[in-house]
Write a structure and sequence with these properties.
alpha/beta; 7 strands
């Protein structure tokens, strides 16, 4: 339905936000790279954003599957140069370490006490917009995929053409497609939802026809700023939830469990 999609591209990113040294919810970057290799083994066009410390390793992994880099674009940007770092680093540090905010926090999770975690999560749409603006692969369909999204054995992914275009073109591609734990939902108390562990829309992966990226980014940033101005914040998934309920008609849901998106569009 809607426009016919012909040129999808998968956009990924990996940045060091110190997660390997966290007291809780820590993960080594070797683990992230191990999972990332699974996604990089897919037969697809990739745009990969990273910082210089990961460049050589990611390039080595991708060349295993795309030796001539015909389907690969690597973009090096420093953490400090990212749009969301410039927009939100100072604001999030002030908010998240303030007395009024810490009194509200009931869950020891990264989105409540690690500003850099939120900055990287919030920057997903900026990575997509950059890939669109630079016309990488002349893409008409942008797929966000978390670096750690695919965690089964690589034999499930290697050489698979993904996503299946016939399945993509069964979607309403005049809308953004989110993978969600719910078919629909409402939010009565925005602050409670943002700071809870309730989430509906999954941030691990989502689909956006290229012409819809700019509007989605504006709406997302408006929601972030509304939250900060109201002295609360949550993960990117909560920001997507809060954005969705403002204008549900702009979005399409595929109801599924975590990471099921891969199998659905295989």
């Amino acid at each position: 339905m809607g426009m016919a999609i012909e040129r999808p591209v998968i956009v990924m990113a990996l940045y060091d936000i110190g997660r390997d040294n966290w007291d809780s919810f820590g993960l080594s970057y070797n683990t992230y790279l191990y999972w990332m290799r699974n996604t990089l083994s897919l037969d697809a066009n990739f745009v990969i954003y990273t910082e210089s410390k990961f460049y050589d390793k990611i390039l080595e992994m991708r060349k295993e599957f795309d030796p001539n880099l015909e389907k690969t674009i690597m973009v090096v940007k420093t953490l400090e140069s990212l749009d969301c770092y410039k927009l939100y680093n100072d604001k999030l540090n002030e908010l998240m370490f303030s007395e009024d905010f810490t009194k509200k926090v009931h869950h020891n999770v990264p989105e409540m006490n690690k500003p850099l975690y939120n900055i990287i999560m919030f920057n997903k749409l900026n990575f997509l917009k950059h890939a669109k603006d630079e016309k990488y692969f002349d893409s008409d369909f942008l797929i966000w995929a978390d670096a750690g999204g695919l965690r089964d054995d690589i034999s499930n992914y290697k050489g698979i053409v993904w996503p299946n275009l016939s399945k993509v073109n069964e979607l309403n591609n005049d809308k953004v497609t989110f993978f969600s734990h719910s078919q629909d939902f409402d939010i009565d108390n925005k602050e409670f939802h943002a700071m809870s562990q309730i989430r509906h829309i999954q941030g691990t992966a989502f689909f956006a026809p290229s012409h819809l990226i700019d509007d989605l980014l504006i709406e997302f940033n408006n929601t972030v700023n509304e939250c900060i101005d109201s002295r609360y914040i949550g993960s990117d998934e909560k920001i997507f939830d809060l954005t969705y309920v403002k204008n549900k008609e702009k979005y399409h849901f595929v109801k599924c469990t975590w990471r099921e998106y891969y199998q659905i569009f295989k």
